Automatic annotation (TrEMBL):
Keywords: NAD, Oxidoreductase. The keyword Oxidoreductase applies. This is Oxidoreductase. Residues 133-266 form the GFO/IDH/MocA-like oxidoreductase domain.
């Protein structure tokens, strides 16, 4: 029997990012956040207490709660798939932090498990649901810059080890600038240009070891096992093209996202945010700002959009299929850099429509 009313949510992983998620999820009237679980049950208890969540404990205890319909998987990338498969086996829909998986085989396994169970495996980032990228998509689709032709994206930083108290995992498999930051930019590119058809790339690594710059482990060194600078070229099924740089090797931190069209160029807000200003360059000195309209709430709106989609029986926008395609693109980038060849991207995705401009995460749309 189909359920009605507010959607029960349980959070697995009480680390740093859970604070942002819990702050939003507990404020959405359509959600009922019931449980926080973590290997460190005391940490889970503290987060549950801080946000008024009624229960906390182990993963098994969370999965045994029949009123939890969606599991929000905030674990480290290396166990995203294992935790998601556990949740699916318990009859729960899943929202996972990015990346969707670390390789194509486990990603396909996750999609197939969800399909076989009649469940959903939506995945971050949900930043593309924010006003910035949604407004950019509406402008591109309306012909505001003529025919969209190419895109240029840039993300450069010195790396997160200067501020993150436990940055080791961000320089290991499943992270680095490509897997940690790439999903924001690649998801936005797919939203604007459609599925990627092929990629070529070059990668490098500035140092084999890095040093933690803050927190209780300051001065401690750790191994770097993934590329820390990635340059990629994309050809899309639509015939459009783009190029991107993802780097933890620049002392000059900067971000940029531009879409060039036949009559103008659109400067898109940072896709790792939910809002921002859009700027249209029409040529010469003609420049105009376009206000972003839509949602500016932070991480967690994808969980809400998933919950409402489940109740309505319609596809969610941050789908597992989209996340798998982005994963496929990222794996293809590494393969292209390793082989020195152009790699065809086998997967594709059908995009859901843009969010309505008046979509309101704070509204109560589901009956009690």
């Amino acid at each position: 029997m189909s359920r009605t009313g507010r959607v029960g949510v349980g959070v697995i992983g009480a680390g740093v990012i859970s604070t942002e998620y819990l702050g939003n999820l507990t404020a959405f009237s359509d959600l009922d956040v019931r449980f926080v679980a973590d290997l460190d049950t005391e940490r889970a208890r503290a987060q549950a207490s801080a946000f008024g969540v009624p229960a906390s404990g182990t993963v098994d205890e969370l999965l045994a709660d029949d009123d939890v319909e969606i599991v929000v998987n905030l674990t480290i990338p290396a166990v995203h798939v294992d935790v998601a498969l556990q949740a699916l086996a318990a009859g729960k829909h899943v929202w996972s932090e990015k990346p969707f998986a670390l390789d194509r085989a486990s990603g396909r396994q996750l999609l197939e498990a969800a399909h076989d169970a009649g469940l959903r495996v939506a995945t971050a980032p949900d930043t593309f649901l924010g006003a910035g990228i949604q407004s950019a998509r509406r402008l591109v689709e309306s012909g505001e810059i003529g025919e969209a032709l190419t895109a240029l994206t840039l993300m450069q930083s010195p790396g997160p080890e200067s501020w993150h108290p436990n940055p080791d995992f961000l320089f290991q498999e499943g992270a680095g600038p490509l897997f940690d930051i790439g999903p924001y930019y690649l998801t936005a590119l797919v939203q604007l240009f459609g599925p990627v058809a092929s990629v070529s790339a070059q990668v490098s690594k500035a140092a084999e070891r890095r040093t933690i710059g803050s927190g209780p482990r300051v001065g401690e060194q750790f191994d770097v096992t993934v590329p820390t600078h990635v340059g990629a070229l994309f050809q899309f099924e639509s015939g459009r093209s783009a190029q991107s740089i993802f780097s933890f090797d620049s002392k000059l931190g900067r971000t940029s996202f531009e879409v060039a069209g036949s009559t103008g160029t659109l400067v898109v807000p940072d896709p790792n945010t939910f809002g921002g200003e859009l700027v249209v360059h029409d040529g010469g000195t003609d420049t105009r700002s376009v206000p972003a309209t839509g949602v500016t709430r932070t991480r967690g709106i994808g969980v809400l959009e998933l919950a409402r989609a489940v109740r309505a029986g319609v596809p969610e926008r941050a789908s597992g299929e989209q996340a798998f395609h982005v994963l496929d693109v990222m794996v293809s980038i590494i393969e292209a850099a390793t082989s020195g060849t152009v790699v065809e991207v086998a997967s594709t995705v059908e995009l859901a429509p843009a969010l309505p401009e008046d979509w309101d995460p704070t509204a109560r749309t589901l009956e009690a």
